[in-house]
Amino acid sequence: MKALPFKIPKGSTDTLIVQEDKEMVFYDKFHQHEEIQISCIILGEGSVIVGDAITDYQAGDILVFGSHVPHVLKSEPSGQESYMISVFFTKASFGADFFELPEFDDFSSFFRNSLYGMKIISEKETLKALFVQLKEEQTKMGRFMIFLNVLSLINAADIEPISSFISKKMYSDNEGNRMASVFQLVMDEFHREITLKEVAEVANMTPNAFCRYFKQRTNKTFFQFLTTIRVENVGRLLAKHKEMTIQEASYHSGFNNLSNFNKKFKEIKGVTPSVFKKQLYDSHLL
Question: What range does the domain containing 249 cover?
Fold first, then answer.
């Protein structure tokens, strides 16, 4: 498979593509495609990278990626199958002016928000049921009607933007493979020290050239990105292992200085690690 750009398989007469992904891990290359993607996670958990941001996903989440928005889902190894139902379409899938009709004026916010990737916060159970219906519906008209219902629900739902910056640059195959290799290294090895020299070699660039290249495409320095990955992993460990201490979680995520970790965690999460852990504990008591 090509890393970037990515082609969504479809028949010559398909305007709306419904796709099931059942694998031990989801497709794990940083990629972009013309189609807007709406995905319902049925089984599995892990991290999703969009633009300059990374966040967790888990079963029941609804994720939206806009047209040409670079993204990747990194499944958390669990020994269990990951399962996702997705729908792909473009703004012109049903005619160049279809979504310009007055009846769809309210959808303008959906298309605008999709440009930064988003996670749907409310209406998730209802949306999950609709995605299952989409998968099972055999007629194109039936799927189209369910799809419009999905769009309407998402447009009215509470959302959480994933990214604050998306590079407008279209990726070549070489660039896609380069970014995919960098992300692969980080996601696999963030628990240990990763030097600038090492990651630059993976990208086949000099350290200075790589620093400029990475910042232009993610709006973050490489080490800001690496720190974000590590902080998110700490949050995941604390959520999954109630008995784990903050110091243990930080050590297993690549931090070797507790005071520096506390500072970085608060910068990214907005609260101290101890407050974050207490919030997790309190939420499980509700």
Answer: 190-285
